[in-house]
Amino acid sequence: EKANGKRKPPPVVHYKMNNVTSTADPVGNRETILILTPLARFYQEYWDNLLKLTYPHELITLAFMIPKNREGNAATLALQEQITKTQKTGPEKHRFASIIIERQDFEPPLSSQSEAERHKMENQKARRAAMSKARNSLLFTTLGPSTSWVLWLDSDIIETPATLIQDLAAHNKDIIVPNCFQRYTDSKSKDVKERAYDFNSWQDSDAARKLGEGMGPDDILLEGYAEMATYRTLMAYMYEEGADINTEVPLDGVGGTALLVKAEVHRDGAMFPPFPFYHLIETEGFARMAKRLGRAATGLPNYKVYHYNE
Amino acid sequence: EKANGKRKPPPVVHYKMNNVTSTADPVGNRETILILTPLARFYQEYWDNLLKLTYPHELITLAFMIPKNREGNAATLALQEQITKTQKTGPEKHRFASIIIERQDFEPPLSSQSEAERHKMENQKARRAAMSKARNSLLFTTLGPSTSWVLWLDSDIIETPATLIQDLAAHNKDIIVPNCFQRYTDSKSKDVKERAYDFNSWQDSDAARKLGEGMGPDDILLEGYAEMATYRTLMAYMYEEGADINTEVPLDGVGGTALLVKAEVHRDGAMFPPFPFYHLIETEGFARMAKRLGRAATGLPNYKVYHYNE
Ligand SMILES: Nc1nc2c(ncn2[C@@H]2O[C@H](COP(=O)(O)OP(=O)(O)O)[C@@H](O)[C@H]2O)c(=O)[nH]1
Ligand SMILES: Nc1nc2c(ncn2[C@@H]2O[C@H](COP(=O)(O)OP(=O)(O)O)[C@@H](O)[C@H]2O)c(=O)[nH]1
Ligand SMILES: [Mn+2]
Ligand SMILES: [Mn+2]
Q1: A223 pLDDT band (50/70/90 cuts)?
Q2: What is the CATH architecture assignment of A30-307?
Q3: Domain limits, chain B
Q4: A291 CB near a chain B CB, below 8 Å?
Q5: Cβ within 8 Å, pair A10-B272
Q6: CATH class, B26-307 region
Q7: Nearest atom within ligand 2 for CA of residue B66
C-alpha cells in the first residue's frame, strides 16, 4: 500500500519461457536450479554437503516440504538454525538465492519412520503414495517459469561430489540419476565398507512386464523384495570399481534420492503418480510418465552419492 | 543488492499449508483465487466479463499462457493494453492482486485456429496434447503454496454471472464445472438463440468403456463426433429451462472452458495428461486422474456460461 492508503497498481510480470535454457553448460549460461527436498529428518551432514556444492549458490533456490508433526517440528528448528547461520553470517558465497519452507500434514502413512519399518513391503504402497503427494505439492508450488533445472535431493543424502550439479547437467539429459550407495561398518572386521542403497533405478525386464500384466489395475510392482522377483537390471549392481564415472545407461525406473530433471519435463506435466501408473508409483512412476511424454531417463552407475546409515 | 554492493541475505519464506483453506465461503475466509487462461486469441468481451466478477479482485491473481507466434503477439498487445488501463487508471476495485503473462512456443499443432479446423476429429489428439502441455506449464509455474482455488477460464468465455466464483465455490466441491453454451443468430428467423457448446463434461457409459477396452493403448475416446458413438450422458443436454441453477450431477469427464478446482487437488498431482490416460486426454483426462486421486467432479447443468461464436 502507498502512504496515502491507496492500493498500488500491482506489477505485471512477463516471462519469455523460450529464453529459459537447460544446457550442458549451466554455469556459463547462468541457469537457475531449484533443489527440492522432502524432509522428515534433518541431518547436519546433508546441510554441510549442500554448502560444499560448487554450483554458484546465487543461482540456487532451496525448497523443503516438512511434515507438520513432532519429528517435523524438530527438523524445521534444526534446519532453520543452519539456514540463519548460512544466510546471515556465513561466507557470502555459501548463501543461496532464496529458501522456501513448506509445512504440511499428510495422512500419516506409517507410525514409525525407522528404516526397517519404512522398507516393509506391505507398507510401501501407502508410504510411497504419501511421498508422491509430498513431492507433487512441493514441485507444483515452487517451480517457476524461469527455473532451468530441478534437483531432487533427499534429506539423508550426506555425501556427493562438490561438482554434483555441473557433472550431472554436463550429460544434457532430460532426467539423470547417479548411483546411491551407503557406507556401513562391517560387524566382523569393523572395516568401513559400502553397499548399494537405492534399488529404484532399473531397466525393465520381460518378467516384470509379465508380472504387471497379471496384476489388478491397483497393484504395484516393487523392487528389492525377494517375494516379488522382477529380474529387472538394477543400476545398483552396475557399479564397476575404477570404471569411467561418465558411463551412461538408459533407465526405465528411477530413484529420487538424487535426481536431476530439466524443468521443462516437469512443466510439460511429469509428476510423481500417487496412484499405480503402469503398476508403478512415485519416482518409478515418474520415469514412466516422462517416457509417455517422450522424455528418457539416464543413469550413471559409476557416479556415486551416499545415503545416511541409521 | 545493498548500496555497498554486498548481496543481502535472502529471506526465508515459511508456509503453513494446513492453514490454506478452500471452503464454501471463500470471501468470508479471504481465500485466494488463481485464474488461469491459456490464450491464443484476445476477446474484449472476455476482459469486460472478468472485470465484472464480484469476487474481491485483491484476492485474485491472473495468469496467462500465450503462444509465441504472430497471433499470440497480437493477443498479448491487446491484453497488455487492457491490463494497463485496469491496473493503472481503472477503478480501485477492478484491480487484481497480480498478473503474470507467460509466452511459450509449442509444436504448433494446427496451421489454422478456425473453429472448424480445431474441431476436426483427426486434429483433436495433437491439438489437445499441445493444449495439455500449455495448461500444465501454466499451472506448474503459477500455483503457489497459499492458493486456495484455481479457476480455469478460456479466453473465449465472454459471459458468466458476475458471482461466478462465489456461486461455484458455494458447492464446496473438489472440481466443479458449469454448463458452457454459445449464442448464435438463427439464419432463417434472425432470432438470437443459444445452443450447447462444450461436450467434454459427461457421465461415462458402458458403450464408451467397451470402446476403450477395444482400443490400442495410444488411442483416445472423443466426444461429440458421430463417427464415435459413446452413448455417454452429456451435461450439455441436461440443461432444463427454469430449473434450479444449483442442481448438481456427478461427472466422469469435464471440459475446461470454465472449471473451478480446489488448489490442493492440483497440488496432490492432478494435471492435464498430454498422453492417453485411460484413453482420455486434457481436461477429460484430468477428471480421470483426479478420480484416481480420490477427488470427484461435479457438474451444474443449469448454471450457464457462454462461449464466443466466431
Ligand atoms: N514431506 C515429507 N517428507 C518425508 C516424509 N517421509 C519421508 N520424507 C523425506 O523423503 C525422503 C525419502 O524418505 P526416506 O524415508 O528417506 O525414504 P527411503 O530412504 O527410501 O527409505 C527423505 O528426504 C525424507 O526425509 C513425509 O511424510 N513427508
Ligand atoms: N497457450 C495456448 N493457448 C491456446 C492455444 N490454442 C488455443 N488456446 C487457448 O486455449 C483455450 C481453448 O482453446 P480453443 O481453441 O478455444 O478450444 P475450443 O473452444 O475447445 O475449440 C482458449 O482459451 C484458447 O485461447 C495454444 O496453442 N497455446
Ligand atoms: Mn532415505
Ligand atoms: Mn474455445
Answers
A1: confident
A2: Alpha-Beta Complex (3.90)
A3: 26-307
A4: no
A5: no
A6: alpha beta
A7: 1
